[in-house]
Amino acid sequence: MSNPVLVCALRGIDAYEVLAGALKGLTQCRERLSTSGSLPQVVMALTPEVTFRQAILFFTEADFVTVTLQEHTYHSFQSLCFCFSVGESWRCRAESLYTYLHAGAQVLCTVLLIKPGVWSQNLARILRNLHLEKFTIVGMKHTNLEPAIALGLLPSEVKQDPAALGAHCTYLTSGTALVLCLQRPNAVKKLMDLLGPEDPKLAQALDPCLWRAQYGTNTVHNGFYGSKSYQMAVRDMKLFFPEGLCCAKCQMLEEEEV
């Protein structure tokens, strides 16, 4: 090839799907411009296996951009993909990610709160489903939420609506909730995928097997609260389990002081 090639290693949630969408948009842009050579020709790895094989061809162990432990533990093996394009070459000295490519998805903790009236009637079934999804329970307590804590669990869009805010807080503080700390590879995303959208009707339309579709009736009585991100999971663990967890200590928990 007569022109230089830029080789990029990219990280992100659902990286393959997101990058494929971006490249599709790039192709459409090129077609609209109709100017040959104005935009680079691009090809990407389509699977984690191909990604790894291409990585060892183009990168040494010192070539990856340093990221924090928090980012390491949140992203999985499938969050790394490669994009090749025509352009100027560059290289950055940094920390290797090959260890994480070999290790695969990292074991994380997340928090599931089963709302009042739901856990007392469906606990056995919910615990069985958690077992089938390979979650390990490393913390459990039932609690009557204080209004301030209930408020902290609500998304920003709910807080902007006084009527919705009042309804959510009234329900969350109306009885005993069960709080579980769960552990498994990619626990945060896996739990969110199982719960489904906040609106049970939307969840029902997407997949009747989603947990909010099964146990929820409306956006207030939707059955569950789950930590939506790694950062929120750490916050929720510190909030509900300040005494600690019954899981084995790992570097991630020590770094986060959980």
Automatic annotation (TrEMBL):
Keywords: Kinase, Transferase. One of its GO terms (molecular function) is kinase activity. Residues 107-247 form the Nucleoside diphosphate kinase-like domain. Belongs to the NDK family. This is NDK5 kinase. It comes from Campylorhamphus procurvoides. The lineage of its organism: Eukaryota, Metazoa, Chordata, Craniata, Vertebrata.
